[in-house]
Amino acid sequence: MLTEHSRTATQVCSVVAIELVPRLKILGCACDVPSHAYTYAFALNADWPQFLSGSDDIFRYLLRVVNCFGLRRFMRFNSVIERREWNDDEGQWHVDIRDALTGEIAHDTCHILIGANGLLNSWKYPAEVEGLQSFKGRLLHTARWPDNYGPEQWKNERVAVLGSGASAIQVVPTMQPHVKHMDVFVRTPVWFAQLAGHSGVNRDCKTSCIVAGLANSTC
Ligand SMILES: Cc1cc2nc3c(=O)[nH]c(=O)nc-3n(C[C@H](O)[C@H](O)[C@H](O)COP(=O)(O)OP(=O)(O)OC[C@H]3O[C@@H](n4cnc5c(N)ncnc54)[C@H](O)[C@@H]3O)c2cc1C
Ligand SMILES: NC(=O)c1ccc[n+]([C@@H]2O[C@H](COP(=O)([O-])OP(=O)(O)OC[C@H]3O[C@@H](n4cnc5c(N)ncnc54)[C@H](OP(=O)(O)O)[C@@H]3O)[C@@H](O)[C@H]2O)c1
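Above: query sequence and flavin-adenine dinucleotide SMILES. Below: predicted holo structure tokens.
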């Protein structure tokens, strides 16, 4: 969440990003538009390793942007906006911010409050699948993939994947080469289109990159 506010006379205008979860690991996560279109216009990047880069490379790029432009001081993690109220007389928002680690509530004000709290981070298991909650094996949702669950842990597992949406398209090819057995349950078929290269290959774009922006920086 991004807020722009003036707090005191000396701190005339500041921008604060308030975020509950600093970074979630999503299995097989990648951009599905060309990486060069996935960059800020003010921070072009000549170092994308792939035409469609994975989340680790995107995260590294964003970290470089944060470091280069000194943005970290504007970010506050593990903080939840609990309440916000517009005060017409003052012409500003009053916001209650709960520290998710200590439970402590802090109060702040701002002139502009931008809600960027997303839609997809509110997830649930499909309630209509009978027996799902009493399933004795490991039950995982792609929106909350545990950090410590990788190929080493999968290798002897029999895996059932429910669904054929964008998440299944990423999880199935990432896990399948490593697991003992996999079944994918498809209710609605999906369509695939070629995304990169003449044969759909995620081709290396290094040779055609334009050197600009971050590529010239020392960050
Ligand atoms: C399982 C899954 C896999 C995905 N994989 C991909 C992919 O591979 N490639 C891709 O391009 N897209 C992917 N997406 C879609 C992508 O995650 C979303 O489009 C994108 O994250 C939306 O960005 P956002 O900033 O709007 O919201 P979010 O990324 O959801 O960010 C909103 C943030 O606001 C925080 N927040 C919410 N309420 C509060 C509050 N009250 N106080 C403080 N903070 C709060 C949340 O914790 C969250 O960190 C995936 C989505 C899911 C669910
Ligand atoms: N690369 C990316 O950009 C990317 C990657 C991952 C996710 N995302 C985004 O994240 C969001 C969520 O994607 P998602 O794939 O996690 O979820 P989703 O798009 O909602 O897909 C859920 C899948 O589960 C199936 N399903 C649900 N309940 C079922 C049941 N009871 N029995 C059988 N099948 C069932 C659905 O089938 P039905 O279609 O029949 O309902 C669908 O195939 C989307 O907006 C997506 O675009 C983006």
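Residues 1, 18-21, 26, 29-31, 80-81, 116-118, 120-121, 142-143, 167, 170 surround flavin-adenine dinucleotide (ligand 1) (CB under 6 Å).
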